[in-house]
Every structure is written in structure tokens, then in C-alpha cells.
Amino acid sequence: MVQTSAAAEQHARSRREEILQAAAALFAEKGYQRTAVREIADRAGIAPGTIYLYFDSKGDLLIELMTRLTELEELDADVAQSFQTDARSFLSVICQGRMRRLVENEEMVRAIIPQMLVQPALRERFYDQLIQPLITLLEQYVETRIEQGDIRPVDVPLTVRAVQSTFIGLLIVRILGDEELQHRWEEMPEVLATLLFEGLNPRLDQDRASADRPEASLGKEA
């Protein structure tokens, strides 16, 4: 009985994966609006009604695909492990993986993002199921880092939203065709980390240069 149940669960996971892969390919090729559920079923090699055994609607497919692209489920574990390193390194590494994943699936992202903007129901679900959980997780992370003295006290809600909005804005500008971002996308995580943790204040570089000069060290000792 246990083997039968395990086999059924494996079959369900495999079928869900087949449906999601078919939907991802068609959304990238034709766009979300122009893709019919029947076409997704045909691509997956199943009857149209079978899709509704696993997903309530085409919108569910869209949300599931975006959840995977943003790797929201993995982020919880990443945050838990992040306290083994400093906050700056965590931001850089976490951005690298997710920015790379989004670029690898850029055609599908192009097809999906407009739907989030023009369809109120999808937009609400996208915010509730992806954006808000991410905000909550990052707010908790920043608050903990502040308590530990790793980050100076800041307005946590607005800081988290500013960082998140910068990330989304960069993605949109890249999709719009910005050549600099298209050619140097892999450099952005480090640029973001530098801007966030070091800013644009020239005194930082000046202080570093002073600290590197032997006479500066002697002067301090004196």
C-alpha cells in the first residue's frame, strides 16, 4: 500500500512537471494571453481536462512558474544559512543566483510580467503569493542583522522595498533592451552590494587610502 501511494505521488509530481514545462515553453513562444489551456495539454501529451486535476486555472500555472523563477521556496533556507557569512556577501550571492535564473528564462519572463500589470486578479495573486512573502522574509532578516549589530539601524520596511524595487527595475530595463545591462548583467549583484553597503560617499575610499599608507599608521600610533 505504501509503495502504491509513493508511486502515485511520483506520478503526480511528474505530471505537474510536464504540464509546467509545456506551459513555460508556450508562454515564451506565444505569450500568456495567446496560449490556450488546450495547447498546453497538447504539448504535454495529455487531455485538456487533466490539467485541472493539478491546477485550478491557467493563472495558477503562471504563478507557479514565477515562484520557481524567483526561487522563493529555496530563499527561506538560504536566509537561514546566511548568518554564517556577512550581510554584504549574502546579498551578492543571493542576487547572483536569482538574476542568472531570470536571464536564463528571459523569454518567459517577458511573456509573464505584462500580465501581472494589466490583469488585476493575477496582479493581486502575484503580490500576495510572491512579493509579500519575500518582503516579510527579508524584513525579518534585516531586523535580525540590526539586532546583531551587523547592519546599522534603518527604516526596515522601506529599505527592503527599495532594494527589491531596484532589482525589479533593473530586470525591466534589461528587458526593454538596455545594452549595458544585457552585456554586464553578471556584474550587477556586486554593484548592488557595493551601493547598498558602501554607498557613493568618497570618504570611504579616502579612508581606505589613508589606512594603507605606512605614514598614516605611524601617525596614529604617535
Instruction: Tell me the strand percentage band.
Output: under 5%
Query: What is the first-to-last residue Cα distance?
Result: 80 Å
Please provide the ordered H/E string of secondary-structure elements. Answer: HHHHHHHHHHHHH
What overall geometry do the principal axes of the alpha carbons give? Answer: elongated
Work out the number of β strands: 0
The whole-angstrom Rg is 22 Å
How much helical structure, as a percent, in the residues?
over 70%
Into how many domains do the coordinates divide? 2
- Report the CATH topology name of the largest domain: Tetracycline Repressor, domain 2
Contiguous uncertain segments of 5+ residues: none
Mean pLDDT: 84
Q: Which architecture name of the largest domain does CATH use?
A: Orthogonal Bundle
Helix count equals 13
CATH-assigned homologous superfamily of the largest domain: Tetracycline Repressor, domain 2
